[in-house]
Design brief:
The chain is an alpha/beta fold. The protein has helices at 2-16, 20-27, 75-91, 112-125, 146-159, 183-199, 214-225, 248-258, 292-295, 316-322, 329-332, 335-349, 355-379, 384-401, 406-409; strands at 31-40, 46-55, 63-69, 97-103, 135-139, 206-210, 229-234, 239-241, 280-283, 302-304, 325-327. The longest helix has 25 residues, at 355-379.
Amino acid sequence: MFNAIKERLERAAAIVGVHPDVMEVLRWPKETLAVSLPVRMDDGSIRPLKAFRCRHSEVRGPTKGGIRFHPSVNIDEMMALAFWMTMKTAVVDLPYGGAKGGVAVDTKALSPTELERVSRAYVRAFAEMIDEHRDIPAPDMYTGGIVIAWMTEEIATLKRRPMPAAITGKPLQLGGSLGRDTATGDGAFICLEALRERLGLGDGATVAIQGYGNAARVFAERAAAAGLKVIAVSDSSGAAHDPAGLDLAALGRHKDETGTVGSFTGDLDPDDLLTTKCDLLVPAALDGVIDAAVACELQCRTILEIANGPVTADADSILVERGIEAVPDILANAGGVAVSYLEWVQNKTGDYWPADEIERRLSQRMQASTEAVLAKAETYDTNLRNAAYILALGRLCDAISATGTQTYYNGES
């Protein structure tokens, strides 16, 4: 995955022309650590778990990125996601670099006490990295809520002082920010609204969403309120489908009561969600779900990437050939890290803002970032993915070049 996504960086660099020194700095992570976490299970046994933390770049500031607990976690994925975060923070112009961490574990197979031990063991293993000025973790898959609360408490215990700014995505009671729970979905909607004219998504345009977690639910509700018609959603256990438009309030209650959208309405196989006929396809689950083969079968006009890396690099050219525009993850799902930045600032200053101020700042940043990507797309006559990478690369180039490149040291102009 990591080598594949670097192709996108190379494409953007080829369009605008980038000094080789800059590319060398960005091609590989600054720091990657893999460890074994020996965790005591409830039956008294020791279970070693693979755990990782990758810090890709700190040329624009401390590294920032989530921690995920999932059986598929591996070092290649961590490097890829850290790279994406470097690009994402540059696209929305945050003073961060990218990082990512994770543990290869199935949280559904853990008791609450085992989950707590894993969470605290992770912080102990990577405590030298975690710091508000060096590396700032956040929640990701299966690490929200109390997991982040345990991690926040553990780092404070290890450092022997409160460190609220060292981890973001915290519960409000521990220094979290209003608006953080809905930030990714809110940001994706703000981005889409700014692009609706370019994408041709008028009132009544149909939407299909793969992965109906928190971010997708927030996005779906806001999209429906803005005149779009959500006709299909899926999660890991099932799917719901109604060509006339789903009743999202009822669907939400069903999901809360049963844990799945399955058996709500319709007979759609969740494996067929991605190829459902719709105007807008929203992959909001795992990475890599739209590869070259799936790209050939899509029946959508546009893709909005709420998940990280749902479209593989080898599918990009197929989407271009078929005229399917993809709003890339490094723009579309940046609302989460944008509000994490606001949380970090509030933690560092001790000045906490009301929800409307958070909403205003998020909207302003997402709109400005989307307009900047659009401007690059028009300037270079390219698609939105290339445009987002061009924007990010330009900002990273400025930071790297500020300390000198080969051109400077050779006395060339």
